[in-house]
Write a structure and sequence with these properties.
With 329 residues, the chain is of the alpha/beta class. The protein is built from 10 helices and 12 strands. 29% of the residues lie in helices and 17% in strands. It has a 12-stranded mixed sheet with strand order 7-8-9-6-5-4-3-2-1-10-11-12. The structure holds S-adenosylmethionine and iron/sulfur cluster. Iron/sulfur cluster (SF4) binds next to α10.
Length: 329
């Protein structure tokens, strides 16, 4: 097995976020509009075999951590089978999943058996009526049941991802953080990232204020995160079972430690979430490229990975690449 490739800025690239669908059963305000979403056609989406082949090639190149994401990954019928097959690829050192939790209650056990060990579940509120407002679907109870099921099954880490929006859910920061006292869950607060000229643009709530809101709960001690955690700063309250993470991708950029590649459901490789640059691996797959040619294209993209994003710069106020559901977060 090769050791992980490095980019031109000496960053070791060993983590792949693999989006297996652009479809979703929620419509979160900050991610996906209710109407007017252009869905990929079936033929545009990578097949099961194509996904597995690309995963194998990446892992053979030294990419050792893979996260399955979407859209909503569990909305793809083959999700379990894909997890099982990818988990079995030799050289993989951890398969994880990011889900909105809607289908998790029924699938948690099978996902664990398939080889998923870490699960991130998106949850922006503890209030059912607000959940409906944010996701446009009345499914809070199902997601909560999914979080509880994930706890029971024994995943090594269960994280809750909360996108904080000013005036929408910033008043729940403390309540969500308190979950870490009752449950062994990591609650991660995420700054809203402005994709396109978005209606939530005015609702940006900075990481520094998230931290301020947490202070009354007790002293927050810095804590170690996992390697594949990317841009989160980690803390824990004394005596808590779980940790707190703050992901300030806009206010603080952590590009110098970025180890990620992203593969979209239609087979485009992205080396930066906020860059429009993509490498069309689907084209290579469907025009008879050999594994070594695909690996060479991946390596070439890695070498061109940008040094940093420019999202927080005042001049950078325009739309960027694709919406989040189409990249995979
Ligand atoms: N559907 C799954 C879910 O919601 O967990 C996986 C895909 S979703 C695109 C991955 C993550 O991106 C979620 O945690 C979601 O909250 C986050 N996300 C989506 N749009 C975002 C935005 N504009 N800013 C910050 N985070 C966003
Ligand atoms: Fe769907 Fe996840 Fe986007 Fe919400 S954040 S609309 S659950 S893809």
């Amino acid at each position: 097995m090769s050791s992980a490739p490095s980019d031109s800025f000496h960053r070791k690239i060993d983590y792949l976020r693999l989006s297996i669908t652009d479809r979703c059963n929620l419509r979160c305000l900050y991610c996906m509009p209710e109407e007017g979403v252009t869905k990929l056609q079936h033929s545009q989406i990578l097949s099961y075999e194509e996904i597995v082949r690309l995963a194998r090639i990446c892992i053979s190149m030294g990419i050792s951590k893979v996260r399955i994401t979407g859209g909503e990954p569990l909305a793809r019928k083959e999700a379990l089978e894909l997890c099982k097959t990818i988990a079995g690829i030799s050289g993989l050192d951890g398969l994880s999943l990011t889900t909105n939790g809607v289908l998790l209650c029924d699938l948690a056990e099978e996902l664990f058996r398939a080889g998923i060990r870490r699960v991130n579940i998106s949850l922006d509120t503890l209030k059912p009526e607000r959940f409906l407002q944010i996701t446009r679907r009345d499914l809070f109870e199902r997601v909560w049941a999914g979080i509880m099921a994930a706890q029971r099954v024994g995943f090594s880490t269960v994280k809750i991802n909360t996108v904080v929006l000013a005036g929408i859910n910033d008043d729940e920061i403390k309540d969500l953080a308190r979950l870490t006292f009752r449950y062994a869950v990591h609650v991660r607060f995420i700054e809203f990232m402005p994709f396109a000229e978005h209606e939530c643009r005015t609702r940006f709530f900075p990481a520094s204020q998230i931290l301020e809101r947490l202070r009354p709960l007790g002293s927050l001690e810095a804590s170690n995160g996992e390697e594949a955690d990317g841009p989160a700063l980690h803390y824990a309250f004394k005596g808590a079972l779980g940790k707190i993470g703050i992901i300030g991708a806009v206010s603080n950029h952590f590009c110098s430690s970025c180890n990620r590649l992203r593969l979209t459901a239609d087979g485009k490789l992205k080396t930066c979430l906020f860059s429009a640059d993509e490498t069309d691996l689907r084209l290579l797959l469907r025009t008879g490229a050999k594994d070594c040619e695909i690996a060479a294209a991946i390596l070439s993209a890695v070498r061109k990975k940008p040094e940093r994003h420019h999202l927080g710069d005042p001049v950078f106020r325009k739309a960027i690449s694709r919406p989040m559901f189409s990249i995979g977060g």
